[in-house]
Every structure is written in structure tokens, then in C-alpha cells.
Amino acid sequence: MNPDLLAPEIQQYIIEHTGEPIQQLALKKNPFTTVAWREIVSQIASRQKAKDKLPTWYNTNGIIYPEKISVEQTSSEIAAQYKAELISGESLIDLTGGFGIDDYYFAKRIKKVTHCEMNTALSAIVAHNFKVLPVTNIKCIAGDSTATLKDLGQQHDWIYVDPSRRSDSKGKVFLLEDCLPNVPQLLNFYFEYTNKIMIKTAPLLDISAGLSELSAVKAIHIVAIHNEVKELLWILEKGFKGTTTINAVAITKEETKTFKTTINNNAVATYALPKHYLYEPNSAVMKSGAFTAVSAQFGIDKLHQHSQLYTSDKLVAFAGRRFIIQNTIPYQKAAMKEYVWGKKMNVTVRNFPLTVTDIKKKWKIKDGGTVYAFFTTNMQNDKIVLLCAKI
């Protein structure tokens, strides 16, 4: 951490120039002699990234930021607040502290939080920021978290870990054993120091793959913010051998909705042709894969085994978007020319052989308007288009 960045004139410059195009800023002449221009530009870029994601940090004077990538990879305040609601107790140790957003909110629920961070410079930045914010019940320790756990030799109510993919990890599919720290390998070691572990992973991790690598998984929280899945939270409890609960959590500015089910539940879906209403699950429910449970819990019918769209005659509360079906048309040339060709509408594809781009190009569809067109397959394996109005 460079303390010269805290000079009042430099801090004021950073604030005044936040939001300016970084490429243009980088070409300007450095008006200061005490700090390298690259560092100042980096602070401006990182602060801009924090504006919407980390408003508490953005609106606090004297904050020092790490490289932009650290801000991009950290939890948002909204996600951190949700995580904090899941824990309680006297002590928590964060083995992969990062920029410290999660720990800031854990500290509101836990009396003593330990922030471990391998990167010494980042650890110093976080320690400084906690003083500025201010937070007094977080201790920052730089170094390897495994060694720190051994050196402290203490029991903690919670261990929190956010493993990162190794740089040499290839492909879209990854396993927890491909990450650092290697949680599956260290799990028994972690349970020597706690009874409860929370693991944060990227949404890319397949749930069934995670379950095959981990033991004692009591619950999984799929956290979506504004209908984009941001992270998976795995709650482990020492000795737990019961059924894993799935929580599909959809957070918006207005509310937080949670759809709950269990792994390998025995729910049975019902099927029907399109009725009066159409339902599209939110992204958290889609990630859960609990499509038969959706039909059973809400008392609505699936259109097809693989379509993941639902219908009913009576409107029900739902974990996702709801529509009135105004017209159901067969995917045939005559019907398409009459109802779809050249029209303005919002196109969605579910279990259909063409992509949204292909459909819009083929039928000259313009984006926008109030009509929502779902290209899908019904229970009779017929290709259909549902023209809907959003509720």
C-alpha cells in the first residue's frame, strides 16, 4: 500500500476524475511527483468499478483500492449482506479475505472476524480501509490461511472460504479440486477448527459436481441479483448426513424471494397444453434444476419435460416472471407471417431448435414493444409460439 495516495490533493483528484474514460486519462501528464501516474489511474478505475457495486466504499473518503480485477472479483455489498444473514456466533475466520467486503458485513453479525489474505499488499489495503470505515472487530493477517489456522490453534464458529480457480485451469467446467485452496482436500483439516463452513463458488460450478466433491452439505444458496446468478453458497455442518436443502434466492431492489426445495426430492410434475397464464422461472430457480418441484409446489403445469415453462388457468404467486397468454400459434409459415413477421416483440427461446438471433433474422422481428414471444415445444412435441403480455 502506498501511503502517498492518501495525500488530500491526490484523493481529491481521484474523486474529481472518477468516471472519466480510463484510456484517455492514461495519456494525460501526471500532475503529481510523489505517486506514479499508473497508480493514480488504477485508483480511479477501481473506484469507478466500486460505484454501484460497493457504494459504502465509494462514498467513504480515504479508501484505497486494489487493482481493478480485485474489485471486479469481490462480492457486491448486496451479496455480502445476504451471506451475513446466514451466520451468527462469536468468531469467524475468512481464509480468502480479498478486498474484505464479506468480512465487513460478517462483522455486523459476529463479534470477532479474522481476515486472512495471502497477498501482503492487499492485506495492508484492507486493514487501512477497515480503520477508515470504521470497523474495530476485524483482525487482518497476511499469509497462508492453512498456516494461520494452525498457528492460531483456535476453534471458530464459522470458517468462510472463497476458493479461486488456478490460472492453469482450463475449460468452462471446473471442479473445486481445481481451485486454491483445494477445499475437498482440506475439508477434514478445516473441521478440526470449526463445526460450520461456508464456501462461496462462482455460478459456473455444477451443483451435482460440487456435491460429489464435498461432504456434510446441509444447504446450498443460489444467489441471483437482478435475475443474474452471482454466486453459490455451500453451507457445511460437521457430521451432517441429512438431505441437502436448495435455496434459490432472487434479490431485487424491491424484495428478496426464495424458492426452497431439496436435492433428489420425489416431486412429480404435471403437464398441459398452454392455458391462460405462462410462467418463466427466475435465473436462480433455473440454476437449481428443480423443475419438477416448481410444478408441484406452485400447482402449475409444465409445457414439456425440457421446456422449463409452466402454465395455469388461475394466476399464482411465482418465483419468476408471469405472463398472460394472448395467442398460441403453431410454428408454421402461414401463422408466422400473419402474427410475427416484421413485428416488434421480445423473443425468448425454450426447448426450440433455433436461437433468438436466428428467429429474429428469419422473421424480421424488431426488438422491444410490449409483446413477449416464447418460441418453445409443447407436451405433444409440437413447435409453438406463445404471444404474451407481461403481468
From TrEMBL:
Pfam families noted in UniProt: PG_1098_Fer (PF22013), Thump_like (PF18096)
Source superkingdom: Bacteria
InterPro entries associated with the record: PG_1098_Fer, SAM-dependent_MTases_sf, Thump-like
Keyword Transferase on entry: yes
Key words of the record: Methyltransferase, Transferase
Molecular function per GO: methyltransferase activity
Every THUMP-like domain range: 320-390
SUPFAM superfamilies on file: S-adenosyl-L-methionine-dependent methyltransferases
Biological processes annotated in GO: methylation
Domain PG-1098 ferredoxin-like: 277-316
Protein name in UniProt: Class I SAM-dependent methyltransferase
Species of the source: Flavobacterium litorale
Source taxonomy: Bacteria, Pseudomonadati, Bacteroidota, Flavobacteriia, Flavobacteriales
